Amino acid sequence: MHESSTLLLQMWAWLADARTGREVFSRDLTFRRDTDEAWRRAEAFRVSQIRDAGRHRSD
Question: Is residue 37 classed exposed, middle or buried when 0-12, 13-18 and 19+ CB atoms within 10 A define those classes?
């Protein structure tokens, strides 16, 4: 995570296949972090992206 300013936070996520080391998912997200709700929404969004990437992974 990186604090871009007092209101913006940037978050990166990278997911790799443990067997092959190949990248499965890589995204960045910039969001306003001025409330606890903003944190919860950004977290839920990121988790859903990672979960969906795992479901759509092709072997």
Answer: exposed
* 33: phi then psi, degrees, rounded to nearest 5: -115, 35
Tokens 């306003």 correspond to 32
What pTM does this model have? 0.53
Widest CA span of the chain, in angstroms? 42
Give me 30's structure tokens.
Answer: 């910039």
Phi-psi region of 21 (alpha: psi -120 to 50; beta: other; left: phi over 0): left
Cβ atoms of residues 9 and 30 within 8 Å: yes
Condensed to tens digits (0 to 9), the pLDDT of residues 4-30 reads 666 777 878 788 889 999 988 888 877
